[in-house]
Amino acid sequence: MGRRDRERIQRILAGEEAPIRHATLAKVAVQAISRQSTDKQVDFLHGSLAEGRLGHSKLRRTLEDNAPKEMRIGIQKLVKQGKTPTVDLLLEEYRREKSFQKLAASVGLTEEWFIKLAEEKLKEWSATK
Predict the structure, then answer these.
(1) pTM of the model
(2) Phi and psi dihedrals of 107, rounded to 5?
(3) What one-character DSSP code corresponds to residue 36?
(4) Are residue 24 and residue 42 in the same domain, yes or no?
(5) Is there a single domain that holds both residue 54 and residue 92?
(6) Are 57 and 72 in contact (CB under 8 A)?
(7) What distance in Å separates the CA atoms of residue 58 and residue 60, rounded to the nearest whole number?
(8) What is the mean pLDDT of each run of 10 residues along the chain (129 residues)?
(9) Domain boundaries, position 31
């Protein structure tokens, strides 16, 4: 433990400084990870799963929660580029990122799941056109 750590602990014990909360640390960690490339993010998540710092069910829920938003963003990008969104175009990045495919499959999210999600999001998009 360095001098700065000891001084910070003394200030916290004296009530002069608030301790860092775990939620704050988690938020900072998520921000730092999200700035990384997809491969580095996947490597970090694989390591977290292997070490038991992250549960399979938690990762699955997070991927299930984020995937619809990412599909909508993909549709918006394709439309902005003047392209007609298709399942193949939406899954292009998924199919390119082999490490992400393995990570998703390790928590039970197969390519079929992503295809079904892409089809659902395309139906929603076409209904709002």
Answers:
(1) 0.74
(2) -110, 10
(3) S
(4) no
(5) yes
(6) no
(7) 5
(8) 80 76 62 81 88 90 94 96 96 94 95 97 92
(9) 1-35
